[in-house]
Amino acid sequence: MQEPLQLLYSLVNAVQPLPEDDWAAFSSIWKPFQAGRKEIVTSVGEREKYLYFVMEGVQRVYYLDDQNREATIVFTYAPSFGGVVDSLLLEQPSRYYYETLTPSRFLKTPYTELKSLMNERPSIERMVRQGLTQTLSGVMERLVEVQCFSSEDKFRKLLLRSPHILQLVPHKYLANYLGINPTNFSKLVNKVRI
């Protein structure tokens, strides 16, 4: 098995293993894709047509309000799925941007092909549903953090969840993700040890 597909196989197995013939069908729909640093992969108003599997690089999904204020919603990096998932699954225009922060390599699959496989093969549908359930659980946990935790507690939780994140993502984006002033974020970087 080629290296990119091996990474995809490992992630799929961690979510929910597929029977061999379903894995063969699932793995056949992915194609390589690359994007440079600071490239918008999906824009507001576009319908997300692809599910991405991140092999290299760091990306973010962010919201831009009518006053040009950014809110970073999520980061993606290897090995994980990426894209504007609600736009993809609802087949509606995106309310968010999907941007690369570093040069990035992906596998991508058109949602039309993924949806067809999900309809034909129950184990693939179950695997996707299980992955979405895990993602939703993480989103719910993050909402609690955003609404209830102090800045220091949000920072500690982030480091416990993703200890390597400080080396992957520029600090200004992490501060935005946590809803912390960049100066206060710098103080936390110097103060908090995990």
Automatic annotation (TrEMBL):
Residues 37-120 form the Cyclic nucleotide-binding domain. It comes from the Bacteria. It holds the Pfam family cNMP_binding. Signal peptide: none annotated. InterPro entries: cNMP-bd_dom, cNMP-bd_dom_sf, RmlC-like_jellyroll. This is Crp/Fnr family transcriptional regulator.
